[in-house]
Design a protein that fits this description.
With about 150 residues, this protein is an all-alpha fold. The protein has seven helices and no strands.
């Protein structure tokens, strides 16, 4: 049911050309598909979300999509990547002054726990990564350590 609603939302937001909403719907549909086991489609939607958010200069949207990709990595038993993606997102949000919403925090706690980590493990030394957004996006789109095969087509 949620998947159908998100599919319809994604379609409608695309029709009315609301990039931020498209990115958000793609992120949450991707998360739904991760939970349903459709990892290939989830990856495609989450990567699209990263690219759309980057193109519209929505760094919070990029952080949300990174967290979605962390969930995907955890589902693929890629714990180190899941933790790194969460750490990068956790670094982006404070720069924007935007905390992780409580709902997102719940499922992210589960993602980190499945990767053998916790929020307190992310940048626990008080440091920050301060990666440029281009580097953040490139890392998000890497596959098995290989450079991104997809680029934004603006």
């Amino acid at each position: 049911m949620a998947g159908a609603w998100l599919e319809q939302s994604l379609r409608l937001y695309t029709e009315i050309n609301r990039a931020g909403w498209v990115a958000g719907a793609a992120t949450y549909l991707g998360l739904t598909l991760v939970r349903c086991g459709d990892l290939a489609r989830a990856r495609s939607l989450l990567e699209d979300s990263v690219l759309i958010a980057e193109a519209s200069r929505d760094e919070d949207g990029v952080a949300q999509a990174l967290e979605g990709l962390a969930s995907l990595a955890a589902a693929q038993d890629r714990s180190q990547r899941a933790v790194r993606l969460c750490a990068i997102a956790a670094d982006v949000r404070p720069r924007l002054g935007i905390p992780v919403p409580a709902w997102d925090r719940q499922w992210l706690d589960a993602v980190l726990a499945s990767a053998g980590a916790a929020w307190s493990d992310l940048l626990s030394d008080g440091s920050c990564l301060a990666l440029p957004m281009g580097d953040v996006v490139r890392y998000a789109l890497e596959r098995d350590g290989e450079p991104a095969r997809r680029e934004h087509r603006a």
